[in-house]
Specification:
With about 140 residues, the chain is α+β, with helices and mostly antiparallel strands. It has one helix spanning about 10-40; strands spanning about 50-60, 60-70, 75-85, 90-100, 105-110, 115-125, 130, 135-140. The protein folds into 2 domains: about 5-40; about 50-140, Sandwich (Immunoglobulin-like), CATH 2.60.40.10. Strands 3, 4, 6, 7 and 8 form a 5-stranded antiparallel β-sheet that branches. A hairpin with a 3-residue loop joins β1 (about 50-60) and β2.
Length: about 140
């Protein structure tokens, strides 16, 4: 009669508790997954992603910038910064350039005076996203 009243061993109890915890976690994950999909709907979140393809500086004080919008939403570039290669800000210009999704735009910034040296350009959208160009060289000749 004493054998029928024994409890389960601590090892079996621990295994059962771990399995119950894992099952509860999986059920919570599945519920949250379906809840977030329902709450967000099936609309993709618009992404603003730009890239400076190239920069060209002419001696006539014009800086030509080629920018590609790789995102799924239109962007507007509102600021252009020109830096020396050591990170020193040389000039900043206000611009207004709209680029549609998956499009490329070329625009010119006037009245840019650059001494011979190595520079890079940073453009900023109205939402604060930034693209930085590769280095470009302005020669003395």
């Amino acid at each position: 009669m004493a054998l029928l009243r024994r409890g389960i061993s601590p090892v079996v109890a621990t295994v059962l508790l771990v399995m119950i915890a894992i099952s509860a976690g999986v059920l919570l994950y599945i519920w949250l997954q379906s809840y977030t999909q329902t709450a967000l709907g099936s609309k993709p979140i618009p992404v603003e992603l730009i890239r400076i393809v190239s920069v060209d500086y002419k001696k006539n004080s014009k800086l030509t910038i080629y920018v590609r919008n790789l995102g799924s939403t239109p962007v507007e570039i509102h600021k252009v910064y020109i830096y020396k290669s050591d990170g020193t800000l040389v000039q900043s210009k206000d611009v207004s350039v709209a680029i549609g999704p998956n499009n490329e735009k070329t625009f010119t910034v006037d009245n840019v005076q650059l001494a011979p040296g190595v520079y890079y350009v940073k453009v900023v959208t109205t939402n604060g996203n930034i693209a930085v160009s590769d280095y470009f060289t302005v020669s003395s000749s």
